[in-house]
Prior knowledge:
elongated
Amino acid sequence: MKIAILGAGNMGGAIAKGLVRSGVPAGDIALTRTQPGTPEDLAAAGLSVGTDNRAAVEGAEVVFVAVKPWLVSAALQPLAGALRAGTTVISVAAGVSLAELREDLSRARGVRLARVMPNTAVVLCCGVSGVAAESPEALEVARGLMARLGLAVALPEDKFGAMTALSGCGLAHALRFLRAGQEAGLEMGVPARMAGEIFAQVMRGAAELVLHSGNHPEAEVDRVCTPGGLTIKGLNAMERAGFTGAVVEGLLASLPEK
Ligand SMILES: NC(=O)c1ccc[n+]([C@@H]2O[C@H](COP(=O)([O-])OP(=O)(O)OC[C@H]3O[C@@H](n4cnc5c(N)ncnc54)[C@H](OP(=O)(O)O)[C@@H]3O)[C@@H](O)[C@H]2O)c1
């Protein structure tokens, strides 16, 4: 499947590298940006980046739009005549609706539209993406591709804001928790790198336990807590310091207005 990715920045590059990691031949992916030259990390994955969007979308079955939201119209409108019928255009631009994308492509005949809200962990095929589309066909193509890059969840468009906060921003929130664990380990005398590795694996283990069992997180917490033991003392100390409230406040503050 020939895939074009317009916008070889953080997200476009992560999707491209994730697709290669998932088995898509690098030669099937045409990336573009405005400045000439292929960034080193993309070249190392066997990818190359051009500057000609029309050439990139020629013959492409799927076109990802991964430019900043305010640049989507400028990137898409000139391509309306170049996209062949049956092409699926998948936008990752936060806050740009399917209706706005359709307006940009009003002159394009038979083009299918989808939008996804991924996070940058797609680079390692362990991302999470919300997917919405104008048609079941577009949804199938977009969800199939994003499922190669991690969990892909079909969502109504009005839940994309929540997906932005939970997944896109939530990745950074989770990393802040990781950093906090690392700092605590450091204060206990564990070297920073080792403390970071240990706590990252703890977070991975906690996530895997919940994902595999389907249990509520508190069911797994209960297994670790001995009555009167150290775990519950630590958890209660975290709550007295406002842990759950701080996490909820942080995620709500990351909820986009639109
Ligand atoms: N980063 C995230 O975690 C994240 C998460 C979810 C969704 N998104 C969405 O992903 C999109 C890109 O964000 P980003 O963080 O990846 O931004 P970024 O790193 O600034 O990348 C944007 C890329 O778009 C290129 N570009 C600009 N105009 C173009 C055009 N007309 N044709 C082709 N390429 C063009 C830029 O190229 P030059 O640098 O050469 O100008 C740059 O490589 C945004 O819409 C954002 O909402 C990002």
